[in-house]
Amino acid sequence: MYNLSDITTIKAILKKNGFSFSKALGQNFIIDPTVCPQMAEAAIPDAGYGVLEIGPGIGVLTKELAKRSKHVVAIELDDRLPPILQETLKDFDNIKIIQGDALKLDLNQLIKEEFPNEKLVICANLPYYITSPLIMKLLEENLSAEAIVVMVQKEAADRLCADVGTRQAGAVTVAVNYYAKAEKLFFVPKTAFLPSPKVDSEVIKLTLTNDNKKDIEDEAKFFQMVQTAFTKRRKTISNSLCIPPVTKEQLTQALNDLNIPGTARIEELTMQNLKDIYNRIFA
Ligand code: SAM
Predict the structure, then answer these.
(1) Does one domain contain both 93 and 167?
(2) Is the pLDDT assigned to residue 226 strictly greater than 90?
(3) 27 CB under 6 A from ligand 1?
(4) Residues 181 and 100 both lie in one domain
């Protein structure tokens, strides 16, 4: 069995296959042997679970997930990697590789086909260039997964796990807080990767909840309001939330009724404030 976190082994596999890292695809592979077992342990509650992985690379995390779960389906965009994975993961019969773009695939359909009536978690060392859009997709599509355990750059982890109503919050923070309970699990230094990126990373866990869904009828419309207001985060909400067709007068009246000062910034509003404003004038 290959030791996929041993740097000499990895280099030999890559050399044998004439593989060179693609910066554009965010290819930084894990070489610290402690990281993937720790991540898999944190992601998988018990051996009855299925796992959807995004971006298996040469399979270092995939292998640890497969050891601890019923089966793993991994989506890899780079068509040079599936033949390598066939070799590196040949000792496992519970792994399926799908070549495709995780941003474009119909994940609900894929989950229905690959994990029918199964308990599911999603786990990935995410390519940093698609962190936000991919997390938004995983959240917004209401997938039947219990949790998402992902490694992201430290700065992204700070934003994703921030509290709504604080300076670190962004539109993606609101989405995470709306759909999940977010927590930081552990820090991963940049030296844990080959090639080593410029910044450190962090593993985070998003436990999916339905708590907010009863409050908002049209989630896409709600997040459109949130996103638009966050593009003007330095302005007061009497400006940033003045989004047509809502008029200044309607907004001022609604903020007065809700006891929310128009001089506040969007990043200072709580989730309840955002839901109240939306339901009062945007819904
Ligand atoms: N899981 C491996 C590890 O931890 O060493 C590799 C992680 S590397 C940071 C990200 C992986 O995601 C690469 O294998 C890359 O080719 C793949 N990838 C990039 N964009 C993708 C996309 N849109 N859909 C699926 N996989 C993608």
Answers:
(1) yes
(2) yes
(3) yes
(4) yes
Structural domains counted in the chain: 2
Length of the chain: 283
Look up tokens 């990043």; give the residue. 267
Does residue 2 sit within a domain? no
Residue 67, token pair as written in the block: 């050891």
Q: Is the CB of 29 under 6 A from ligand 1?
A: yes
* CATH number where 182 lies: 3.40.50.150
Is 0.85 surpassed by the pTM of this model? Answer: yes
Phi then psi for residue 174, to 5 deg, are: -65, -45
Q: Which of 163, 184, 211 is the last residue of a domain?
A: 211
**CB of 201 shorter than 6 A to ligand 1:** no
Of 127, 145, 153, the closest CA to residue 207 belongs to 145
Alpha-carbon distance of 150 to 109, in angstroms, equals 22
The amino acid sitting at 59 is G
Shared domain for 203 and 67, answered yes or no, is yes
Distance in Å, CA 74 to ligand 1 centroid: 10
* Token representation of residue 23: 């910066």
State the Rg of the chain over Cα. 21
> Using one digit for the tens of pLDDT, what is the confidence trace for 31-49?
999 999 999 999 999 999 9
Q: What is the domain extent for residue 77?
A: 7-211
